[in-house]
Amino acid sequence: MNVLVINCGSSSLKFQLIDSENEKVIGKGLCERIGIDGSVISFTPNGGEKIVTKSPMKDHTDAIKLVIDALTDEKTGVVKNLNDINAVGHRIVHGGEKFNKATIIDEEVMKAIEECNDLAPLHNPANLIGVRACQNLMPNTPQIAVFDTAFHQTMPEEAYLYGLPYDMYEKYHIRRYGFHGTSHDFVSHAAADMLGKNYDELKTIVCHLGNGASVSAVKNGKCVDTSMGLTPLEGLIMGTRSGDLDPAILEFLCDKENLDIHGVLNILNKKSGVYGLSEELSSDFRDLEDGYIEGKENCIRAVDTFCYRVAKYIGAYTAAMNGVDAICFTAGVGENSGFVREIILKYLGYLGITIDKEINKTRGKAVEISTADSKVKVLVIPTNEELAIARQTVALL
Ligand code: ADP
Predict the structure, then answer these.
(1) Which of 132, 168, 221, 273 could cross-link to 238 by cystine, CB 3.0-4.6 Å?
(2) Residue 272 — φ and ψ, nearest 5°?
């Protein structure tokens, strides 16, 4: 079965066509600047060169049309026609409490997703536009929603409730939802496979460290806690996001900087994290690592503060699960930066963790970096959210 995986943002759309039989990517690409001057689609057929074409896209329907044209192009395409696309898997950011697993999309599901828009105003409406565009152009092809939040719906009440008046939860559904669920799900399963252990009998901590970053605790096959909250702003220090802070800082900043709440949130989302801590040097860990090695104070400060926060979460989740069997690193930083992994793991000697410093230099490959006698296994596992979406789509159909 060929599954088209769509990840639709407000002005961009990432796509991959995956053959579910052999799990190979047949073709993939990206539409950028949708609805803005200078729209461009890039498409890479499996084994071929990347083709970049400037083409106006006034909306997401135009973008999907171009995606289909690229996939079915006589010369550079990868399938003959639309009939060769058997299903579409959509990444949907927020499924609220309504969705605890992937779902076939019908009108009722569309409405239920729309009702979650409040919880992810930047993402969900864009995701839904992508679904509508595909429904219009491929009315007979099943469309499946795969939610970032679904994997975390197994969290117990004590993990998802905030210390707010309970009616805030009842009235507005304010609670911890968590994100990157598809990745945490994929990586925790891959960890069990790598260790040859039963998924339902493991205690795993997954550190998804990319530009956005989150940690999750998976006990006996269920997510029991995660660091992102109602929104993806909570938890770890990220590329440009602050993560956890004293909520009273918001009012303090409004007063001091003469900003409204939106101005302050803009700082917390776009000007904070390692970018803010490094005095706006960079949100990219490659730059920060270089600076760290050169002894630049701002880079050392940013990376050390980031790593300390990750280590604190690992400690907290070890307590929450009363132990841990495996710690996994994934996403851009987690997969590629042995440097960052080593700083984080230095805090965890008390767990009886020892790592092989040579193997820890591995980039972007699934590998065990702990030594044979380490009490807790430490794994690097490249995440693959598109493949996870394709797998869930096929499983549903
Ligand atoms: P997102 O999906 O949240 O945008 P990614 O998981 O793609 O993020 O991670 C992107 C980040 O990964 C980059 O900003 C960079 O900090 C980091 N990264 C990528 N490659 C490397 C590398 N070789 N060494 C260190 N960090 C890297």
Answers:
(1) 273
(2) -105, -145
